[in-house]
């Protein structure tokens, strides 16, 4: 407000006050037009002080990297998952319990709940849709379905004899998920389709490759990809037909695929190959475009004999060398870069300066892969052997979070410089980190 206008308001108020009644000036607020508020992002990490102590959940805000909540979970947690709605978090713990907690900056200890699993259970992984929580249970050779909060066991969906459940693959709002199981002999693995919205029953059993270990679903829930370490392949499941993809059922990749992430804006799948564990691994970049009948007349990449997969679907477009013993890859939300956590030689301590010394130090790093050039553009040394990596937002304002099994801090990398920005205390050794979106 200018000086003349301010003076006029002051004079007017004074004149009114001089009368018999007292008046208060009315201030009309003027709305400021600006960008819509962004959804709150939380960084959720789990750590373990020792094999016999209760673990800790640390929740920090993405914007300021400040700790908002620290809460105890079960004894020696080893797995962390967030539900597909971004509302709750869950940990699997060595005392055979499931811890559940709401993702809230106002969380208090009494709101952290524990579910005790039946005798003989041995959970391997967990996936929650929000309405149901599913656990790969190796102890009873089944997929446990749990509901409620805290989750309570509803039923156990059996895994066939001769197979061991290892991982659950699902997507946000998907109608079904897949329970991966490895053969206890020499047979290929299987993926059991569980209908999450229709009675929670197993609708089919699909043969995949040997020793499946991990899987991802595309953002549109039309395809699921299964990493098979036993034969260095990726099995492709058409989730709409609930069967292997008829055109490309299997994709050859590098040695011992261990993890994957999708880049929907590029129609690409990032498959991380572990290698020998003591030598450099690789990132296989796979083209996965789909077509529709309407796109066929104008899209030269679509196959007229198959109006589902584009002609380039399943082709490995690049193989990018990364660090030693890579364990996990994550892609920025703008699909410009992928970040690979390299755990290094597990038998050696991490090199303090990021330079390996034969027989004495290994490199523990994060490889930055530019997805335009498909090359490594930076290597960031990490003070510890990484066990989990997660990314939030995009270039240049994004952040990468890394936890290590031999470090009690979480490392934060900023994507504008691709260097370590800060660390966040965990009060225990790193187990896992997730980002609520």
Brief overview:
The chain is mainly beta and about 425 residues long.
Amino- and carboxy-terminal Cα gap: 41 Å
Which class best fits the helix and strand makeup?
mainly beta
Give me the number of helical elements. 1
* Unreliable parts: 1-38
User: What fraction of the residues are assigned to beta strands by DSSP?
Assistant: over 45%
Mean pLDDT across the residues is: 88
Q: Mind telling me the C-alpha Rg?
A: 26 Å
Number of strands: 35
Q: Major β-sheet, in short? A: 5 strands, antiparallel
Give the overall silhouette.
globular
Helix content: under 10%
Description:
3% of the residues lie in helices and 50% in strands. The protein has one helix at residues 3-17, and strands at residues 42-48, 54-61, 67-75, 77-82, 88-93, 97-102, 113-116, 123-128, 132-137, 142-147, 152-158, 163-169, 176-183, 190-195, 201-207, 212-217, 223-228, 233-238, 243-244, 250-252, 257-263, 268-273, 280-287, 302-303, 306-310, 316-324, 326-331, 337-342, 365-370, 375-381, 386-392, 399-404, 409-414, 419-425, 429-436. The longest helix is centred in the N-terminal third of the chain and has 15 residues, at 3-17. The strands form nine sheets. Strands 16, 17, 18, 19 and 20 form a five-stranded antiparallel sheet that branches. The protein contains one helix and 35 strands. It has a domain at 117-207. The relative contact order is 0.10. With 437 residues, the chain is mostly beta strands. It starts with a helix and ends with a strand.
């Amino acid at each position: 407000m200018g000086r003349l206008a301010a003076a006029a308001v002051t004079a007017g108020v004074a004149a009114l006050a001089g009368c018999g009644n007292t008046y208060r000036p009315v201030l009309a607020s003027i709305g400021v037009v600006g960008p819509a508020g962004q959804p709150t992002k939380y960084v959720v990490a789990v750590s373990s002080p020792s094999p016999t102590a209760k673990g800790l959940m640390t929740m920090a805000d993405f914007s300021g990297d400040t700790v908002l909540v620290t809460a105890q979970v079960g004894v020696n947690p080893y797995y962390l998952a967030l539900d597909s709605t971004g509302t709750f978090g869950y940990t699997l713990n060595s005392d055979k319990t499931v811890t559940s907690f709401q993702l809230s900056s106002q969380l208090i200890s009494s709101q952290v709940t524990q579910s005790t699993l039946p005798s003989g259970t041995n959970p391997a992984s967990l996936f929650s849709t929000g309405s149901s929580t599913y656990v790969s249970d190796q102890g009873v050779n089944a997929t446990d379905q749990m509901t409620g909060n805290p989750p309570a066991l509803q039923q156990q969906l059996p895994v066939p004899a001769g197979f061991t459940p290892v991982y659950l693959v699902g997507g946000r709002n998907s109608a079904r998920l897949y329970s991966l199981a490895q053969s206890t002999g020499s047979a290929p693995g299987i993926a059991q389709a569980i209908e999450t919205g229709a009675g929670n029953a197993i609708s089919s059993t699909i043969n995949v490759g040997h020793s499946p270990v991990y899987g991802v679903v595309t953002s549109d829930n039309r395809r699921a990809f299964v990493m098979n370490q036993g034969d260095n392949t990726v099995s492709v499941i058409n989730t709409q037909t609930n069967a292997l993809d008829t055109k490309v059922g299997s994709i050859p990749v590098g040695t011992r695929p261990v993890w994957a992430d999708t880049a929907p804006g590029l129609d690409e799948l990032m498959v991380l190959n572990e290698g020998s564990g003591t030598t450099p691994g690789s990132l296989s970049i796979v083209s996965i475009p789909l077509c529709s009948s309407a796109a066929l007349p104008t899209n030269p990449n679509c196959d007229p004999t198959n109006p589902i997969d584009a002609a380039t679907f399943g082709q490995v477009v690049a193989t990018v060398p990364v660090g030693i013993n890579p364990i996990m890859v994550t892609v920025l939300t703008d699909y410009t870069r992928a970040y690979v956590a390299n755990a290094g030689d597990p038998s050696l301590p991490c090199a303090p300066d990021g330079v390996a010394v034969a027989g004495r130090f290994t490199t523990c790093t994060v490889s930055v892969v530019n997805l335009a050039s498909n090359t490594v553009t930076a290597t960031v040394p990490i003070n510890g052997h990484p066990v989990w990596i997660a990314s939030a937002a995009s270039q240049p304002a994004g952040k990468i979070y890394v936890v290590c099994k031999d470090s009690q801090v979480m490392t934060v990398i900023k994507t504008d410089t691709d260097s370590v920005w800060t660390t966040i205390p965990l009060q225990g050794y790193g187990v896992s980190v997730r980002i609520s979106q």
